[in-house]
Amino acid sequence: MTDHTFDLVVLGAGSGGYAAALRASQLGMSVGLIEKDKVGGTCLHVGCIPTKALLHAGEVADAARHSEMFGVNATLEGIDLPKVNSYRDAVVTSKHKGLQGLLKARGVTTIEGEGKLTSPTTVQVGADTVTGKHVILATGSYPRTLPGLDIGGKVLTSEQALQLEHVPQSVTSTNEQRQTEWMTYHSLADFLDPNDRTKTVEGYPAPMRATIIAKK
Ligand SMILES: Cc1cc2nc3c(=O)[nH]c(=O)nc-3n(C[C@H](O)[C@H](O)[C@H](O)COP(=O)(O)OP(=O)(O)OC[C@H]3O[C@@H](n4cnc5c(N)ncnc54)[C@H](O)[C@@H]3O)c2cc1C
What we know:
Blueprint: E1 3-11, H1 15-26, E2 31-35, H2 41-46, H3 48-65, H4 81-105, E3 109-112, E4 115-119, E5 122-125, E6 128-137, E7 155-157, H5 158-161, E8 170-173, H6 176-184, E9 188-193, E10 196-201, E11 211-214
Parallel strand pairs: 1-2, 1-6, 2-3, 8-9
Antiparallel strand pairs: 4-5, 5-6, 7-11, 8-11, 9-10
Helix pairs in contact: 3-4
The structure holds flavin-adenine dinucleotide.
The site of flavin-adenine dinucleotide (FAD) has 26 residues, from helix 1, strand 2, helix 2 and helix 3.
């Protein structure tokens, strides 16, 4: 059992938490950053970065598909999704290492484990007590589904979709941006009407956290 004391304790090391930790340390505060999983959170591991890596690979495929438009003679032979996923993982790993290095270099103390706020100035992490003059809660969000759609099988959130090793022939998405990403890989993509989840529509914006039904 150890007691740690900092000027600032940040619970959750996603984009919000690590940015606050880095800024506070830049301003001269001692900072303890508590994370139960990996520093970088949703954006780095299961959000912005992996999806943009996949989108980039899709754009490369599109450029090859339409290469004659640019006066380039090329043909697209296919998409090897396991290799695309390896490229995605390499991008995430390198940014994760970079962030770990930056936090260390800036003197932020990273504490691994699930934290529980036990008073306005105290977070309990296992047997350790972490105390701060100030505490920031930056615990983020989690994927939600719609009533009657249990996650599993063909009902995916963005997190399961990122792990797919095949391109579904068609998908229905609750999210317009996700729809665009699927279309880059030439899936037929509809998305659900937010006013009537039994219908699909085109061109209707929906929240970031997508529930996706892979049809085939
Ligand atoms: C598929 C997808 C694509 C996205 N693309 C973009 C994009 O292109 N551009 C953009 O701006 N945004 C994008 N986002 C949104 C972006 O990821 C979020 O806005 C951002 O991650 C929110 O950061 P956060 O710090 O609030 O939470 P999170 O990143 O969720 O971080 C919270 C952290 O807290 C940790 N945590 C939670 N509870 C505890 C606890 N009790 N103890 C210790 N640790 C805990 C979690 O493990 C997590 O690491 C995307 C999101 C998704 C899902």
